[in-house]
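Lecture 7 notes: from sequence to structure.
We start with the chain below.
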Amino acid sequence: MASTRRKPGQLGPQVEGYRTWLADRGYTPQTVRNMLADLGRLGRWMSGEGLVAAKLDEEAMAAFAVARQAAGRGRALGPRAMMPLLNYLREAGVTPAAKLPQAPLGALLGDYRIWLVRERGLAEATVLRYENTARRFLQQQAMAGGVLKPAGLAGADVNAFLLRECGRVSAGSAKGRVAELRAVLRFLYLQGLMPLRLGTAVPPVGGWRLAGLPPAVTAADVQLLLDSCDRSIDVGVRDFAIMTLVARLGLRSIEVARMELRDVEWRAGELVVRGKARRQDRLPLPAEVGEALVAYLTLRGRTPAGVRRLFLTCHAPRGPIRADLVGDVVERACLRAGLPRVGPHRLRHALAAELLRQGAGLVAISQVLRHQDLATTALYAKVDLTALRQVAQPWPGTAR
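Predicted structure tokens for the same chain:
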């Protein structure tokens, strides 16, 4: 009797490889079966359209989704649902890599990204932020009749853009916009696309150092956040390890996300931290932090094959976490503990404040937090209000 199983058409040779690829990324068996069924549907559609795998791209995927919807067959498949398959086919070399945008603006932004990495040595997250600001600025100011014309920019255009940006962000973020705007203007000048050095026309943003008190998070509140993690489940074990690194060692979100398995040197009792500007530091590994990491690393099925990052997502597709997940972890802990929502950077502040309260000097705190400038650490001298009251002079005419 002939088999009634439908053949996967053009993508038949990719079935087993795709099955293994999905399993390595933590997809459940049922999800793998569903996604293999989608592969078969796509392969049969390709056969009917005379489309070979080498021509498969986002446009072809969209056409397949439209054809399937028009035929009224089963569930609708959006672009996101088909991206894992397209990513696999590209990694396997079956289909060509994604095409880079060829529009003038897209090409210019691509060159700008390369310049930021090679000439400025900026980290990936910083490059993305600079690129986003450059895209908004050029789209709003340098496009005339759909054509990119940065040579026509003037100082008034630069100031108008900055005023709009400052109207929707904080003073600290506005300072970042100034640096990002100056960078793209310098790039345009160096590339000969603009005759004037308009970077000097970007005004500074008022927002003086040490002008305010950093928000306080007490040591008791930090312990409440740690205790809120449910360590009977895998996600809770991972989140507890992440928050312990932030709360006890003052690591930044990006430093947690970048951490690799080799960075934990168990015999030496040290932790390698990959910080800003490609800087690497060594910190002692406290017992509390080490125990939290051991509990996480010994979870069954924690690591997909070939992944060297320490912290991974808990749901498919399994892979390294992004820096913004650290903020999500801290915010969820705040909700569970019934505390006001704070970000992971507040836990760095809390660590510095607690060290100061216990008598540590600013130099020691600066070394723990890995500040390059002691003036940055001086901000935390203001949070010890009890000590400040001991040295404050009475106001004339009042009793102390």
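Points to note: Residues 201 and 349 are 35 Å apart (CA to CA). The longest strand covers residues 270-274.
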